[in-house]
Amino acid sequence: MRAALATGRLGLESLLSRRDATTISAGLEPMLRALPGRPPAEIDRTPRQAKIDADASIGDLAPRRRHLLLTVLGEAPANPSR
């Protein structure tokens, strides 16, 4: 998953919409660190800006938190699902 994020084959929005056991148990921070072109300082502050615990897994994120995370990173869809 991290490799797919790092190469751009998998986008963050697509990752957050997946429901398989591997994805929902994955830690959010390692996935954010795999995003290409994102400096470490941005990744460090992103969970805080999105009001997400630093040790959260992807499965811990409610739809509203997922949208907020995408918004903070400038990748939010126009019409968020609720």
Gist?
With 82 residues, the chain is an all-alpha fold. Helices cover 54% and strands 0% of the residues.
Q: Can you tell me about this structure?
A:
By secondary structure, this protein is mostly helical. It has one domain (2-72): Helicase, Ruva Protein, domain 3, CATH 1.10.8.50. It has six helices and no strands. The chain has helices at residues 2-7, 12-17, 21-25, 28-34, 40-49, 63-72. It starts with a helix and ends in a 10-residue tail after the last helix. The mean pLDDT is 91.
Give the SSE map.
Blueprint: H1 2-7, H2 12-17, H3 21-25, H4 28-34, H5 40-49, H6 63-72
CA-CA gap between termini: 25 Å
User: Which shape, going by the Cα principal axes?
Assistant: globular
The parts where pLDDT drops under 50 for at least 5 residues are none
Which sheet architecture does the biggest sheet show? none
Number of strands: 0
Estimated helix fraction: 40-55%
What is the CATH-assigned architecture? Orthogonal Bundle
> Beta-strand percentage?
under 5%
What integer value in Å does the Rg equal?
11 Å
